[in-house]
Amino acid sequence: MSRVRGRDTKPEIAIRSELHRRGLRFRVHQRPIESFRRTADIVFRPAMVAVMIDGCYWHGCPDHYRPSTKNSAFWQEKIALNLKRDQETNEALQEAGWLVLRFWEHESPVSVSDRIQELVTDRRASRRHERR
């Protein structure tokens, strides 16, 4: 497991490159809430948008997750705990006013970036409007 990347995976890098190419600026692997010990893969702090790129195996993708045949009880529990932690993270960030976006690693970087750009742009506009 020590060889499994926890950050800077190929899907994350592809999405970050696409977002940067579009002129969007963001933080990488930051805690959206300083006191909360969870990080987001991509953070748009002023817009309060946290983006997570979830691996199909580690987060139980309904399309691609295949249970392990070796030590299956351990891995089923591990994936279930990951899903529970993901839900807790979503709830904590949403309660603090953050928009949480989750995408699967198999999704197209271009379509993911389209969605992120749309929602970040909308959030920025609405937050500017609220401050007036």
UniProtKB/TrEMBL annotation:
* Stored CDD domains: Vsr
Decide whether keyword Methyltransferase is in the record.
Answer: no
UniProt superkingdom? Bacteria
One term of GO molecular function = endonuclease activity
Q: Which GO terms describe its biological process?
A: mismatch repair
Q: What protein family is recorded?
A: Belongs to the Vsr family.
Electron transport in keyword set: no
- Gene source species: Saccharopolyspora rhizosphaerae
Membrane spanning residue stretches? none
Q: Which UniProt keywords apply?
A: DNA damage, DNA repair, Endonuclease, Hydrolase, Nuclease
Stated name of the protein:
Very short patch repair endonuclease
